[in-house]
Design goal:
Blueprint lengths: L4 E6 L5 H17 L2 E6 L4 H13 L6 E6 L8 H9 L3 E5 L6 H7 L5 E6 L1 H16 L2 E8 L5 H14 L3 E8 L4 H14 L8 E4 L2 H17 L10 E2 L8 H6 L6 E3 L4 H14 L6 E4 L2 E3 L10
Parallel strand pairs: 1-2, 1-3, 3-4, 4-5, 5-11, 6-7, 6-8, 8-9
Antiparallel strand pairs: 10-12
């Protein structure tokens, strides 16, 4: 693999984790001798398909070694992935898995086609463990998820349910779009529909952006609904970057998060090994994750 250009197709640019992917990719690419071209779809799956098609079919397409994709939706990229691989371009799924990858690996056995993801179900399990550390064996857990047609959101929810399935937990699911504003609006609508005095024991958001939106909704709700206890509902998140999620914990705006590493750097390192040794990356690379703070630092709340 002598090509040096890498396309990085991000889901959005207004999200802390997506910004980490971009920064990590640019840093690691410079160390490994790759050139990065970044596009961002701003949560529009059609736009993402068009952006990737333009990368592949554009005048610099023959220089592409691979496209790294943080997908808006998992289920719509099979055709554009095949377009890339037919052109001799590797395909790397970031942060999720993709069912179409197995067929591409069979059809194009010499190309680097693989996925790099944190253990998504374990993320949900850690959130469930955080909830149990904070609440004990009972409580009303309101979880704010990403779009449930994405594998990451569904697996995180599965992991949460697996841990909280025993005991006397009630789980309410609010589906959002990974954004702070989307979570704020979803929780605000839910609160408006509940009987007066209804509040969750905890809010478990599937990323830190949505955790921040949930915090705003609870703060606003405490005023609109004349319920000061709403503002004290604990909130957890996911992603845990030192500059955002972990900072929110230190500032006590949320009570815990899950530390999720960037997938871009490990993906580029795997591509560089393939370039230098001819060794094809494994179909799936799973990265470890952890609670922030450690579970032992979380104590039951009144």
């Amino acid at each position: 693999m002598n090509r040096k250009r890498i396309g990085l197709a991000l889901r959005a640019t207004d999200n802390d984790y997506q910004q980490r992917l971009r920064a990590d990719a640019l840093t690691v690419a410079a160390e490994l001798g790759f050139e990065i071209e970044v596009v961002a779809a701003q949560n529009d799956s059609n736009r993402q398909q068009q952006q990737i098609t333009k990368l592949v079919e554009g005048p610099k397409g023959p220089e592409l070694a691979a496209v790294l994709v943080s997908a808006v939706r998992d289920d719509v990229l099979g055709d554009v992935a095949r377009l890339a691989t037919k052109a001799g371009i590797g395909w790397v799924v970031l942060h999720r898995e993709a069912p179409y990858l197995a067929a591409l690996r069979d059809e194009f056995p010499t190309l680097p086609t693989f996925a790099v993801t944190p253990d998504q179900e374990q993320i949900g399990r850690i959130q469930g463990q955080q909830v149990k550390a904070l609440l004990g064996d009972a409580g009303h857990v309101l979880t704010v998820t990403g779009p449930l047609q994405t594998s990451s959101a569904q697996k995180r929810l599965d992991g949460l349910r697996a841990v909280l399935g025993s005991g006397t937990f009630t789980i309410t699911v609010l589906e959002s779009n990974w954004s702070s504003e989307g979570a704020r609006m979803a929780l605000e609508k839910w609160l408006a529909e509940q009987p007066k005095g209804t509040r969750p024991s905890i809010v478990a958001s599937q990323n830190d952006e949505m955790a921040l939106g949930a915090r705003q909704a609870l703060r606003d709700g405490s005023i609109k609904l004349d319920d000061a206890a709403l503002e004290k509902v604990p909130i957890t998140g996911v992603d845990g970057s030192p500059s955002f999620g972990q900072r929110l914990v230190r500032e006590k705006r949320i009570i815990a998060t899950v530390d999720v590493p960037s997938t871009a750097g490990p993906a580029l390192q795997a591509l560089a090994r393939s370039r230098d040794t001819g060794e094809r990356p494994a179909a799936l690379m799973v990265l470890p994750i952890s609670s922030y703070p450690e579970l032992t630092a979380l104590s039951p709340r009144p």
